[in-house]
Task: structure prediction
Amino acid sequence: MVDSKTQFESLRKWVVEHKLRTVGSLWLSGIMGSIAYNWSRPNMKTSVKIIHARLHAQALTLAALAGAAVVEYYDHKTGSKTTNSDH
Result:
């Protein structure tokens, strides 16, 4: 139990320090996964496949931004804001 809390805490700190990288990675993986899924459906036109992939990635990006906002709110409320000495 303690080990999983430590892993969660280190993941949370990494997300707080690299918000844009996290959202960008989720967007890229979302669009790649959606394109892969849509390409397995042969009865759709290519333009529709690309539009669906973009919409899926856009929804995933909004979810990632909402998650980053929740993490930021949690850090602000608990006062455990990490300091980044590189910036």
